[in-house]
Here is the input.
Amino acid sequence: MSKQGVNKRNVRKLGTIGNASQPSFYVTLPIDFIRALGWNSSQEVKIRKHGNKLIIEDPNKKA
Here is the structure.
């Protein structure tokens, strides 16, 4: 696959869930990323903001 194809596959859109007055946002993650990290469906993750980026990590995994 060309480099442009891989980059396009990794670009995702934000979606919304819930009522219009106070929605929650979601983004789908590429399955190959999830498998490489060893994550499972319904697994808890920690989300934090670092500058203008969001960091998603396993709260139970030690560095």
